[in-house]
Amino acid sequence: MTTMTDPPQGAFRLSMLINDTRYRSYTFQFIALIALIAAFAYLGSNLFTNLAAAGLNISYDFLGSPAGYDINQTLIEYSSQSTNARAALVGILNTLLVAFLACVTATIFGVVAGVLRLSNNWLISKLMSFYVEIFRNIPVLIWIIIIFTIMIAVMPGPREFRGDDASASMVLDLFAFTNRGVYVPGPNFENGFASGALNGLIILAALVGSWFAARWNNKRVDLIQETTGDRPNTLYANLAIWLVPVIALCLIMGLTWDVPALKGFNFSGGIKVGGPLIALWFALSIYTGAFIAENVRAGIQAISKGQSEAAGALGLRQGRIMNLVVLPQALRVIIPPLISQYLNITKNSSLAIAVGYADITATLGGITLNQTGRAIECILLLMLFYLTISLSISAIMNVYNNSVKLKER
Fold it and tell me: Distance between CA 121 and CA 189 in Å, rounded?
């Protein structure tokens, strides 16, 4: 029997925040959150107090001032009179460019090396093991410097392409490989809908549309197979879906090619892929590819041998078994660590300053920081950029990871 002073059964009491296991974890988390906020508030207050005492303040007005320095390779228009914000944008685009290229090629290297490392051919297996052990155990900075040095020492200079007694010549009269970089033909749209990089974005949008169309076509064929048991050939249909819109768009836009040619002391025309970009791109690719190879090998070995044996019993060749049976299942094991490797590529691209490639660390975190003296502002912007791009890569790859993981009923 309860009295008037006893709390009703089931009523909440403050002591339950500590004694009741239903609320105890929330209590400790709330206390930890308050302590963390207080710590950051103290550090922030201390920072602003010291800055005020030194006569300094946090300001981003320097982003509107002229940069005053040139950048050797840019994806957008830029000059030394452009603003520091423009220079930072150039650095961001350069970082994204080398990160994207390295992610693609590192994935190719890693998948090929990971599969071949499990080959029954002793020589091929050992060569892939040698590649993995050598490249992943030597710092990537050393590989960047080695590749850049070899490129400068081995590749011919532009003057060696000059004259009748030239010791070097262009490949197919279209490509020039020099110690300053590689010169390739560049697209020129005479009837383009826009100017500069916007034409490339239009072509990219067409490719994205083709990808969705090809995906819809494959789903349609899957439905036909489920209904009739017969799977139609989709090769020619998918080729048409990918090629016809892009070719038609290029013809409408009047696509021509600007071929590089030697003029004076250097090549002009076309697109220049600078030596620093090539060195950084190739070094990040072969270095990270060695780690991806191990991820691929682990993913393949995680698949039961019974899967391969069953596919072989149906008459499939080894190559088809790997492509159609083993690798699709191994993706569930490969994708999670692959995300970390893509993040490592993006962050390791900050080593570009070692060979003079103007990424975001070299522009905003290097020259701009030294010229303006705004160290705190530049570092905060750098942190924000790398945090944003890393979270974006993780989000995109996690969406893909969810699409290939096992679906429970």
Answer: 49
What is each CA distance from 80 to 8, 16, 34, 70, 87, in whole angstroms? 76, 66, 47, 5, 9
For residue 39, being part of any structural domain is answered with no
**Distance between CA atoms of residues 190 and 198, nearest Å:** 14
Q: Same structural domain for residues 217 and 320?
A: no
Q: Per the structure block, which two tokens stand in for 294?
A: 């191990």
Number of domains making up the chain? 2
Which pTM was predicted?
0.78
Quick one: 309 and 245 in the same domain? no
Give the model confidence (pLDDT) of 307-329 as tens digits: 777 877 877 777 777 777 777 88
Where among 255, 278, 308 does a domain terminate? 255
Maximal CA-CA distance, the chain: 113
Q: Which of 253, 172, 241, 246 is nearest to 211 (CA)?
A: 241
Domain of 136? 84-142+269-404
Report the first-to-last Cα separation within the chain, whole angstroms: 50
